[in-house]
C-alpha cells in the first residue's frame, strides 16, 4: 500500500504545502528569515551529499542555495529604500552576498566543505542580525 518512495513523496508534498502556507501569511521580515533558513538548509543538504559522494544532488543543493542568495536575498536589497544613510550598508551587503555565492560555487567545483562552512557561517551571522530587528506591532 505505502512504499518508502510514496511516503517520501507524500511527506515532501506536505512540507511544501506547509512552507507555501507559511509564506503566504508571513510578513516581509518573516519572508527574509525564511530565505535565510532555506539557504542554510540547502547548504546542509549539500554538505551531506558531498560527504556521501552524491555529486548530482550536491550540485542541485548548491545551485538552490546560490539561487536563494542571489535571486532572493540579494535581489530584494533596495538602496533607495535604505536612504542616503543606508546606501553603503546595502552596497556592502550586496558585495557580501556576492562573496557567499562565490564561495558556494567554489565549494561545488572543488568539493570544499570549508567553503560551504564559510558560506553557512556568513549567512547565519547576517540572519542572526536580521532576526534581531523587531518589526512587530509594538514597535511600529
TrEMBL record:
Protein name as annotated? Flagellar secretion chaperone FliS
The UniProt similarity line reads: Belongs to the FliS family.
* Keywords tagged on the record: Bacterial flagellum biogenesis, Cell projection, Chaperone, Cilium, Cytoplasm, Flagellum
Q: What is the lineage of its organism?
A: Bacteria, Pseudomonadati, Pseudomonadota, Betaproteobacteria, Burkholderiales
InterPro entries, alphabetized: FliS, FliS_sf
Tell me which Gene3D superfamilies the record gives.
Flagellar protein FliS (1.20.120.340)
Which species is the source of this protein? Variovorax ginsengisoli
- Subcellular location(s) per record: Cytoplasm, Cytosol
The cross-references to Pfam families, in alphabetical order and at most eight, read: FliS (PF02561)
Keyword Chaperone in the entry? The reply is yes
Amino acid at each position: 500500500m505505502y512504499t518508502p518512495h510514496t511516503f517520501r513523496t507524500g511527506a515532501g508534498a506536505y512540507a511544501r504545502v506547509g512552507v507555501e502556507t507559511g509564506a503566504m501569511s508571513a510578513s516581509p521580515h518573516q519572508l527574509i528569515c525564511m530565505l535565510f533558513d532555506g539557504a542554510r538548509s540547502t547548504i546542509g543538504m549539500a554538505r551531506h551529499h558531498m560527504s556521501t559522494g552524491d555529486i548530482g544532488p550536491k550540485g542541485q543543493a548548491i545551485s538552490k542555495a546560490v539561487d536563494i542568495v542571489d535571486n532572493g536575498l540579494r535581489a530584494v536589497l533596495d538602496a533607495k529604500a535604505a536612504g542616503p544613510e543606508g546606501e553603503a550598508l546595502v552596497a556592502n551587503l550586496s558585495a557580501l552576498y556576492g562573496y557567499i555565492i562565490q564561495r558556494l560555487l567554489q565549494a561545488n567545483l572543488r568539493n570544499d566543505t570549508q567553503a560551504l562552512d564559510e558560506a553557512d557561517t556568513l549567512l547565519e551571522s547576517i540572519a542572526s542580525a536580521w532576526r534581531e530587528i523587531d518589526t512587530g506591532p509594538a514597535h511600529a
